[in-house]
Each structure stands twice: as structure tokens, then as C-alpha cells.
């Protein structure tokens, strides 16, 4: 069912942007093509993207 949903959304996104928030470990078996951009939210300032808002950090992570 998830593969069908993602395939449908990929076809709908030909002329528009669709943002999906999903854990990448739950995406096994879902075909990804060149039009799909995956952004990893890592909560690590040096690897991936820290969070959804660029440049905004958790104050408890400040040292």
C-alpha cells in the first residue's frame, strides 16, 4: 500500500512540489527516481540537515 501511495504522489508531483516527512528506514522497497530529493534531518550540525528550519538549533545543544 505504501509503495502505491508513493508512486501515486511521484506521478502527481510532475508539475508541483510535494513534501513528505517519513522515516527512511520505513521506505524499503519504494522505488526512487532522479526527481526525488531526500533531505536527512539528523540533528547534527555537521552531517545532514539539523532540523526543518535552516539555521535554527536546539538551545540545549549549544556549547
Summary, kept brief:
The chain has 63 residues and is an all-alpha fold. Helix content is 17%, strand content 0%. 0% of the residues are buried.
Please give a structural write-up.
The protein starts with a helix and ends in a 51-residue tail after the last helix. The protein has one helix at 2-12. 17% of the residues lie in helices and 0% in strands. It has one domain. The relative contact order is 0.14. It is mainly alpha-helical. The longest helix has 11 residues, at 2-12. It contains 1 helix and no strands.
What are the salient characteristics of this protein?
63 residues; elongated; 1 helix; mainly alpha
Q: Label the structural class.
A: mainly alpha
The largest β sheet comes out as:
none
Number of domains: 1
Per DSSP E runs of 2 or more residues, the count of β-strands stands at: 0
β-strand percent reads: under 5%
H/E series:
H
Please state the CA-atom Rg, rounded to the nearest Å.
15 Å
The end-to-end span amounts to 44 Å
Poorly predicted runs: none
Count the DSSP helices: 1
Gross geometry = elongated
- Helix residue percentage: 10-25%
Mean pLDDT: 82
